[in-house]
Amino acid sequence: MRFFLTIPFLVSAQLAVADGCPVAPDHEATLDSLYAEIQTAPNQMVARGISNQMWELWLEAPDEPSQMMLDAGLRALRVGDYLRALDQLNKLVSYCPFYAEGYNQRAFVRYLSGDFEAVLPDLDQALDINPRHTGALTGKALTLMALDRGDEAQAVLRDAVALNPWLSERALLIEPEGDPL
């Protein structure tokens, strides 16, 4: 009996945390196709176009209020107003705790601010929601490098490059013997 009482409680707790934010759009089928395309892209220019399509999907927030928060955060980020960007992205993450891009963009602001320790929890949350988010994976690899955790960074970077072999960060991969690729 206790098991059955716990499940409704957990479901209602999750809904309360989301505070009205709907589930993010489901782009899995489109992303599956884009990941397949990028694997066989003939050159960097074609791959960049495919990657841009992925970013368009990731940057599509669940609803109008969350899109406004994301857009305001990105505008602030573009002009270097990290405090305002962080404020908007904090609101977004509070409103839509199941939207990966909110965490990813907040991590990016923290990375640019040099707060590397705060970056990793956000990227881990983004990757829990969207494990194939190559932006979050490369961000995590770069953050681990900044924290002098090179072995971990290389493993994460290899995961990202396996998804998108055209990432510019692939130049940071090191052969196990220590020679650059």
TrEMBL record:
The keyword Signal applies. It comes from the Bacteria. TPR repeats lie at residues 100-133. Gene3D superfamilies: Tetratricopeptide repeat domain. InterPro entries: TPR-like_helical_dom_sf (IPR011990), TPR_rpt (IPR019734), Ycf3 (IPR050498). Keywords: Repeat, Signal, TPR repeat. Residues 1-18 form the signal peptide. PANTHER family: TETRATRICOPEPTIDE REPEAT PROTEIN 6, UDP-N-ACETYLGLUCOSAMINE--PEPTIDE N-ACETYLGLUCOSAMINYLTRANSFERASE SPINDLY-RELATED. This is Uncharacterized protein. It comes from Marivita hallyeonensis.
